[in-house]
Specification:
Length: about 450
């Protein structure tokens, strides 16, 4: 992913580049209209909604995916790789580090890892991060997993949110690590990354040139809302900053969801914050579910047979991010993000992808390993990416963990007293109440927002 991922984030929030064109809403074919009338409710008791065979499939996939994530960890520093192409210098993001700590907690809860061993792994990571170069107690975004050298002196606000969220989950699950976690969570000032005039988080800050990025994280429908919550909880951000995030909508097939939406990065932008925050029944949660439903209808409309459109490492075109989501490239992890909302549809999609060869064994050092699904599949060429991205594998694993344990990661994160207080404060400015959800939801009617049509390309 390297610089391409940062460039994708930059373009999303650039005032010059982040413009999605819209056209007049066209007539929708009758068969698509019929799809919209079918209600889909979240499984009220997680994995209980599926058969024993289906649950075993998900547990097996979680195990394989954890094996993949844990395999590509540097034995000295304990830091996870960014991807599985091990040529040249290996850098990882603080997002990968934070999510890996949450993954280790989930692996213990699922019986995939010994709790004592996982605790030692996280302690090693925390000691490593004590040695890593920081700015105002914030680690730099890209770190060499062997030497701890930083790739550039850049601090990313959204990645910090993911990093500290992972530390919080680890802290809550491993009491013996609380002193180490509290040290990393101490003396954080997210106001250093907050534009007090525009009242949005900057994308980041270059400490070498002393320059803030010109673009901001301003959209509620992005993964950056987790950074806002973490910033409010442990970094001194004003609670009202949550509700100031822009709530613009777009719609496709008559289904509304928050921007940046389909071409803004696809499924992961809508669902990533929900790995930590229980968003069921909230505007972001309803939006994410609507986006997933729209993707299922799109699968039928273009007769692709599978769905899951999100930023990913394609077999032929490199990393596909902002405004580069292609109909012919699907990512298995993307559909799994919606597993708590659409378990039956997700498992059907995964079984089809497996039939298409997207879950091959991985050959490493002369030994074959079961590492779960590769990152992406090209529908036109039937090609499978030869790489795994740890961000995507971690999101897939944490989604399955929440589903199989009825919200284990959500519960840990929200049990941290500063997060609990932040959620209480946010409720004063925004309705975060949860409840039973049926999709699709008319968001503009429910929340009084305006929606614009997404232009087909």
């Amino acid at each position: 992913m390297d610089h391409r991922r940062d460039e994708r984030n930059a373009r999303i929030y650039s005032s010059k580049a982040a413009r999605i064109k819209f056209v007049v809403f066209a007539l929708i074919p009758v068969f698509i209209i019929s799809c919209l009338s079918i209600p889909y409710a979240r499984a009220s008791a997680g994995s209980q909604a599926l058969s024993t065979e289906d649950n075993e499939y998900f547990k097996n996939l979680a195990g394989d995916t954890y094996n993949c994530i844990d395999f590509y960890v540097d034995p000295k520093t304990g830091l996870p790789a960014d991807n599985t192409k091990r040529s040249g210098e290996s850098y990882t993001s603080v997002t990968n580090i934070g999510l890996y700590m949450a993954v280790l907690a989930g692996a213990c809860e699922l019986g995939l890892e010994d709790k004592g061993d996982a605790s030692k792994k996280i302690k090693k990571i925390m000691r490593t991060m004590d040695q890593a170069k920081t700015w105002s107690n914030f680690p730099y975004n890209w770190i060499n997993i062997r030497t701890l050298q930083v790739r550039e002196e850049f601090v990313s606000s959204v990645d910090l949110g993911n990093y500290f969220a992972g530390i919080i989950v680890a802290r809550q699950y491993f009491p013996e690590l609380r002193k180490d976690a509290d040290r990393l969570l101490a003396d954080l000032d997210f106001n250093l990354l907050y534009d007090k005039q525009k009242k949005f988080l900057y994308h980041g800050y270059n400490t070498k040139s002393h320059v803030y990025t010109q673009w901001h994280y301003d959209l509620l429908g992005s993964e950056s809302r987790l950074a806002y919550l973490v910033g409010i909880a442990v970094g001194g951000l004003p609670p009202q900053s949550w509700n100031l995030q822009v709530k613009n909508l777009e719609y496709r097939y008559g289904i509304e969801y928050l921007k940046p939406g389909w071409q803004g990065g696809g499924m992961f932008l809508g669902f990533m914050a929900g790995l930590f925050i229980n968003e069921q029944g909230t505007l972001p949660g309803l939006s994410a579910g609507n986006l997933a439903k729209a993707q299922m209808i799109h699968m039928k409309n273009i007769n692709s047979g599978v769905w899951g459109w999100s930023a990913s490492n394609s077999p032929l075109y490199g990393y596909l991010g902002f405004e580069n989501i292609r109909d012919d490239v699907v990512a298995p992890y993307a559909s799994v993000l919606a597993v708590s909302l659409f378990p039956g549809e997700v498992i059907a999609n995964l079984r089809k992808l497996e039939e298409l060869g997207v879950r091959p064994r991985q050959l490493e050092d002369g030994i074959y390993h079961n590492f779960g699904f590769r990152d992406a599949y090209d529908i036109k060429t039937s090609m499978v990416t030869d790489n795994y991205l740890m961000l995507d594998q971690s999101m897939l694993f944490l989604s399955l963990t929440n589903f199989l344990t009825d919200g284990f990661v959500n519960g840990l994160f929200e049990s941290y007293p500063p997060v609990k207080n932040a959620l209480s404060e946010i409720n004063k400015y925004s309705d975060l109440s949860s409840g039973k959800t049926v999709f699709p939801v008319n968001l503009s009617k429910k929340y009084g927002l305006s929606a614009s049509r997404y232009e087909e390309k």
